[in-house]
Amino acid sequence: MPASDLPVLTPETTMSEVLAKYPSAQRALFARYHIGGCRSCAFSPTETLAQLCERNENIPVQEVIDHIQSSHSEDVKLQISPREFADLARIDTSVRLLDARTREEHEAVTIPGAQLLTQELVQEAFNSWSKETVIILYDHTGSRSMDVAAYFLGHGFSNTKCLAGGIDAYSLEIDPSLPRYKVEMEA
C-alpha cells in the first residue's frame, strides 16, 4: 500500500485514534519498542504519540509513525480475504485451516474443515508438517490471529496467512449459515 494511501498520523494523534486507524499498532510498538504490551509499559487511550515517545526515552515521533505504517503494510500482506480463501480451499485440499479462538467459540461455530489450534496441534505442526504447508489462521474478527501467524512465520512456515476479518467476515461474505456473535470483551 503506497504511503499516500495510509491513514494520517501526527504527533498529536491520540493512541485511541492510532489503534482505530492501525489495529496492529500495539503489536508493532511492543515488538520494536516494548511499549503497550504489558501493565508496566501500557499507554493511555488519550495519550498522544508525542507524549508516548517523550516518556519512552524520547523516541523520534516520525520514526514511530513510520514503524506503525510499515508494520501495517506488512500485516496487510499477511492477510487473505474470505473470497480468496474460499477459492483457494476449493482448489487446494491440502490447505490447513486453524482456528485461533477459544475452545468455546470453536465449539459454538466453526468454518468447515478447521482445526482448533491447541498446543498439541502446534507441536504436531512443528514436528511433522512441511514448512511449505499453506496455513490459514482465523479468529473472531481477524486481529488476534496475526500474533499466531507471526509465531508460525518465525518458525519457518512461510505460507502462513490470516483470514481478514476472521470468522465474522467469512460469515458475512461467504457462508451466511454460520451464526455471527459478539464477544463481551469486544463490545
Quick summary:
By secondary structure, the protein is an alpha/beta fold.
What distinguishing features does this structure have?
187 residues; alpha/beta; Oxidized Rhodanese, domain 1; 2 domains; five-stranded parallel sheet; 9% strand
Report on this structure.
The protein has a five-stranded parallel sheet. 45% of the residues lie in helices and 9% in strands. The protein folds into two domains: 75 residues, no CATH class; 108 residues, Rhodanese-like domain (Oxidized Rhodanese, domain 1). The protein is built from nine helices and five strands; from the N terminus they run H-H-H-H-E-H-E-H-E-H-E-H-E-H. Helix 8 links the parallel strand 4 and strand 5. It has 187 residues and is an alpha/beta fold. InterPro entries: Rhodanese-like_dom, Rhodanese-like_dom_sf, ScdA-like_N_sf. This is Rhodanese domain-containing protein.
Give the C-alpha Rg: 18 Å
What is the terminal separation in angstroms? Answer: 30 Å
Structural class: alpha/beta
Percent helix range: 40-55%
Number of domains: 2
Order of SSEs = HHHHEHEHEHEHEH
Please mark out the parts with pLDDT under 50 across 5 or more consecutive residues, or reply none: none
User: Can you count the beta strands?
Assistant: 5
Number of DSSP helical runs: 9
Mean residue pLDDT: 91
CATH homologous superfamily name of the largest domain?
Rhodanese-like domain
Under CATH at level 1, the class of the largest domain stands as: Alpha Beta
Biggest β-sheet: strands ordered side by side in the sheet: 1-5-4-2-3
Strand content: 5-15%
Query: What is CATH's topology name of the largest domain?
Result: Oxidized Rhodanese, domain 1
